[in-house]
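User: Please predict the structure of the protein below. I'd like the answer in structure-token form so I can feed it into my own downstream comparison script.

Assistant: Understood. Taking the following sequence of 126 residues as input:
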Amino acid sequence: MTSQTTFDKKTLIRVRDVLPGDYNFIMATFLRGLYYGNEFFNSIPKEVFMSEYHAILERRIKGPVTIKVACLKDDDDVILGYSIYRDVSVLGDSVKVLDWIFVKSAWRNIGIGKNLVPFRVQAVTH
């Protein structure tokens, strides 16, 4: 008889703030996700989109945003997902705006995305 070990993937994960070494992964997955996941964007020649939107995205993620990263508890360098959001002032009130969320496909449907999204998001851009 063999015993099968079962575990809950959630126990392997922690959420942390973004680190400088995370930005290349974030840029690459955001650009690919946006390009291949949207008919409008993928109608633009790929080289043009990647070049032009890279500059836009770089300003966005280096600006006044919050980036949360889900990673393995035992290895901060293994990114499983991330979210990018910001506070925007609208008529004197602070509004949470979610710009992007990404979770690797093998790690979806276990609640990582929910843990990355801030409480009370009122708008989504992408």
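That's the full token string. The longest strand covers residues 75-90.
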